[in-house]
């Protein structure tokens, strides 16, 4: 009788029709992606910049750019940067909200072979200094509102060129004048006209100088994307043009319903985060899609209104967004049926939210998985084939995945036994070159065979669907037993009063283990007590997995893309322990 060994890649049998096991990747830079779309679709709308709706939601305040016009502005900005002496291998920091400015500056840098340093606009002056010094950025492009933070620390950095953008730079009459007047009245304005040593973004777009020949090569580093900020000092993942181009092509192949030149992408997640950059901006450009750019998605009603008015078809988001939509008391006012595909990333998607969102929209909300070091997507549930609840889905084309023992690092059998858990490791064309100036960290993250160790604990079923059990570092020690936060959170999310939940282990000062603690946000108008939630958990969880402490919050601390900052919750709880202890 033949010995039937499990397939080394059982997930290939579960791909949607039309998704190949391997792709032919162009030997291209990120600029080449834009240039090809500009060539094929010069008259297609590239961006619609939505600042707000007025007059009963009928008139949009904002502006549009065709791909032809976008290409021209990229050429002009590249020429202006070149005239400043910015050259291949230099670093330019972008501290911008979602806006046409970001796209123009990003692709101009890509054209010149300049490395973009993505910078979170909410950074304090101290955090900004840390990143500028670490990256060695010589140039920064930032919104005028953010200039005071740079001014405070600029002398302590290597920044030579400061380019200040205004939110109305690309807007037509009369919206340019309307927006500027409104900002001044609201005192939401920083006047930089008297500041020395700065240049204006708008002036640089007016340059008539010819841009030099494109200088970037596919294996050049395109991006410094900082990671690790939720757990420690951030470090820059070096992502090459090739990494990002390959991941964009993988996303494009995965979403088989996408029609080149026919989609509208809701661009509400930040471009400065690699998930928003790849799955929104780069995917949108490669597909010649119209990017409906939203600089501020809060409150969530903004997102629902814009989807309804603009008839967006692709909506990449994070769980916090989908949670907000399904629980909004006003969701019935908006027609969200235009959305046909949503990819949820950055944090685990609660199963209950996924079910409710699909029922509400009729679209397909699928959970994916990735990490900064992989450009970022490595796994996703199929758009049409079985979407398994709680699963991050299947590895992308050309992406290998395996589990290794948490203690020894030895490869575990990939036999579909869901009892087998280990650290998830991935290998593929989207994996970074390494961390900037951190060879020891790089060696720990990527082994000699090219496997990226994710730090996530996972299991795989017989069909190749992977399930993230939790973060390796987030495992909670309760009396010698291991508790995975997601196990508890999934149960709490099924309670009708719970809007959000985060479970952490708070080190006990004397016992030597962790106090299992749940932080809960209730739905508006709902009520529940800690004892009620504990009793609810008892129906589904072993006694040692029942939270010992349940604390109610009005909101949870999150990163800009909606990932809960567990370390902040732990630190706050420890501080309360100190106060209580005298």
From TrEMBL:
The keyword DNA-binding does not apply. Keywords: Ligase. Residues 35-436 form the AMP-dependent synthetase/ligase domain. The keyword Ligase applies. One of its GO terms (molecular function) is ligase activity, forming carbon-sulfur bonds. SUPFAM superfamilies: Acetyl-CoA synthetase-like. This is Long-chain fatty acid--CoA ligase.
């Amino acid at each position: 009788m033949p010995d039937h060994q499990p397939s080394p890649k059982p997930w290939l049998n579960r791909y949607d029709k039309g998704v190949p096991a391997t792709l032919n990747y162009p030997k291209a830079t990120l600029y080449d992606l834009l240039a090809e779309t500009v060539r094929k679709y010069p008259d297609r709308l590239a961006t619609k910049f939505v600042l707000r709706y007025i007059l009963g939601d009928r008139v949009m305040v904002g502006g549009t750019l065709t791909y032809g016009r976008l290409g021209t502005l990229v050429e002009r900005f590249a020429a202006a940067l070149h005239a400043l002496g910015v050259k291949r291998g230099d670093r330019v920091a972008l501290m911008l909200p979602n806006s046409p400015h970001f796209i123009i500056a990003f692709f101009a840098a890509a054209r010149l072979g300049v490395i973009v340093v993505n910078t979170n606009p909410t950074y304090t002056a101290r955090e900004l200094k840390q990143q500028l010094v670490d990256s060695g950025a010589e140039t920064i492009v930032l919104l005028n509102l953010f200039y005071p933070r740079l001014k405070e620390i600029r002398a302590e950095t290597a920044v030579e060129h400061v380019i200040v953008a205004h939110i109305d730079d690309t807007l037509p009459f009369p919206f340019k004048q309307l927006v500027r007047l409104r900002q001044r009245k609201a005192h939401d304005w920083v006047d930089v006209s008297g500041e020395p040593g700065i240049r204006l973004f708008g002036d640089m777009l007016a340059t008539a100088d010819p841009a030099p020949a494109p200088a970037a090569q596919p294996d050049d580093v395109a991006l410094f994307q900082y990671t690790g900020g939720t757990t420690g000092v951030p470090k820059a993942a070096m992502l090459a043009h090739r990494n990002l181009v390959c991941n964009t092509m993988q996303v494009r192949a995965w979403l088989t319903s996408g029609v080149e030149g026919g989609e509208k992408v809701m661009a509400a997640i930040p471009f400065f985060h690699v998930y928003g950059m790849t799955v929104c901006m780069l995917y949108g450009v490669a597909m010649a899609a119209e990017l409906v750019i939203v600089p501020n998605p809060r409150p969530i009603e903004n997102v629902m209104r814009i989807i309804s008015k603009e008839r967006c078809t692709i909506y990449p988001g994070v769980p916090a967004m989908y949670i907000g939509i399904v629980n909004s008391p006003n969701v019935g006012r908006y027609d969200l049926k235009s959305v046909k595909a949503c990819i949820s990333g950055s944090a685990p998607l609660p199963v209950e939210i996924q079910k409710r969102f699909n029922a509400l929209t009729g679209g397909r909300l699928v959970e994916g998985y990735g990490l900064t070091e992989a450009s970022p997507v490595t796994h996703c549930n199929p758009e049409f084939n079985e979407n398994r609840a709680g699963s991050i889905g299947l590895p992308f084309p050309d992406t290998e995945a395996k589990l290794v023992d948490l203690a020894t690092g030895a490869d575990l059998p990939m036999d579909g036994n869901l009892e087998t858990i280990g650290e998830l490791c991935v290998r593929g064309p989207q994996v970074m070159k390494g961390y900037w100036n951190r060879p020891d960290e790089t060696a720990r993250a990527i082994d000699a065979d090219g496997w990226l160790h994710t730090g996530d604990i996972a299991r795989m079923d017989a069909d190749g669907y992977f399930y993230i059990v939790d973060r390796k570092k987030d495992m909670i020690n309760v009396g010698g037993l291991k508790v995975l936060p997601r196990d508890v959170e999934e149960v709490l999310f099924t309670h009708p009063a719970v809007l959000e939940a985060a479970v952490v282990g708070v080190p006990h000062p004397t016992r030597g283990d962790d106090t299992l603690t749940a932080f809960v946000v209730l739905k508006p108008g709902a009520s529940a007590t800690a004892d009620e939630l504990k009793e609810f958990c008892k129906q589904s969880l072993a006694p040692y997995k029942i939270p010992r402490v349940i604390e109610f919050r009005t909101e949870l601390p999150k990163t800009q893309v909606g990932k809960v900052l567990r370390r902040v919750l732990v630190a706050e709880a420890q501080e309360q322990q100190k106060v209580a202890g005298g």
